[in-house]
Amino acid sequence: MRQGLYTTIVLSVLAAAFGVHAQAADELAGVTAILKSDRAFVPLRLALEWLRAEVRYADGKIAASRGNDVVKLTIGRCTAGRNGRMVLLDAAPFVLGGRPFVPLRFVAESFGALVEYSSARREVTISDGNRTASLFVVDYQPGWLTYMGAWFRADYPANFSVVNRQVSSTRPDSYEAASFISADGLVEFYVFSPQWRGESEWVKLLPGEREVDRSTEETKDRRVTHVTVVGPDQAYPRSWVEVVELLDGAPNTNHVFGIKYANQAAHDKHGRRYLRFKASLVQYGD
């Protein structure tokens, strides 16, 4: 079911994989803030690079600077440094999926930016000079992060990397689809969820691929199609399910989930997480 859209400018994470479209202008597309210990946390490098600060991170120690302002933090510690003075934090920086997360308000305000949080909209807004970015805020989930698309959000394993796909035609600062690739590179999860209805790049055969299975189930309200293809020389299987919601028998909205895996062992290893990923989808309408 689609929900009303929270007005959210979202950010970019990573781009690299076959068939990926150009990055949207906003470097924070897809990123959400994490609510932990009643404080909003954001990925270290993405947030500080958006603030145009220089960052050094090694052995759990973080040093960031912009102009004459210098901030120092340590993973797991509630003490920090701001321009040579010690500051007590309400919550300590932490690592999730190999990525360090820092308290947004402390870091942003240390560099002169403004932070506003709306609990009603679950949105945190950063203002820095004439630039503004807003992030949807999600609750902390051990081992999981949340991706915010133009018209959807979905949870994914925290140690997976993110590939933005298919820039939204109605919200060009964000995306209608994304892929999530396991740390070992053996599995890729995919989701496509446009504003209403659209064509997913995932359902197109790539060079050398061959379809090996297709089935369709239809009721008066929806049509569900399952497809499996194999890569050149059976290098990999790739499967997807497309769900088309019907209105008076005609296609209305749709979304696609997909998985690509190197072998059955890789599929078995990540299968349960793929099911959780699919179940987490929240769609938005205008």
Q: Biggest sheet, in brief? A: 7 strands, mixed
Find the structural class using helix and strand composition: mainly beta
The CATH class designation of the domain at 2-30 and 149-285 is: Alpha Beta
* C-alpha termini separation: 13 Å
User: In percent terms, what proportion of residues is strand?
Assistant: over 45%
Roughly what percent helix? 10-25%
CATH topology call of the domain at 2-30 and 149-285: Protein Transport Mog1p, Chain A
Strand order of the largest sheet: 9-10-3-2-13-12-11
The number of E-state strands comes to: 23
What is the radius of gyration?
20 Å
Provide the low-confidence segments as ranges: 4-25
Task: Sum this structure up briefly.
With 286 residues, the chain is mostly beta strands. It is built from three helices and 23 strands.
Write up what this structure looks like.
By secondary structure, the chain is mainly β. 10% of the residues lie in helices and 49% in strands. The chain has a domain at 2-30 and 149-285: Protein Transport Mog1p, Chain A, CATH 3.40.1000. A seven-stranded mixed beta sheet has the order 9-10-3-2-13-12-11. Strands 16-17-18-22-21-20-19 form a seven-stranded antiparallel beta sheet, with helices on one face. It is elongated. It starts with a strand and ends with a strand. Residues 4-25 have low confidence and may be disordered.
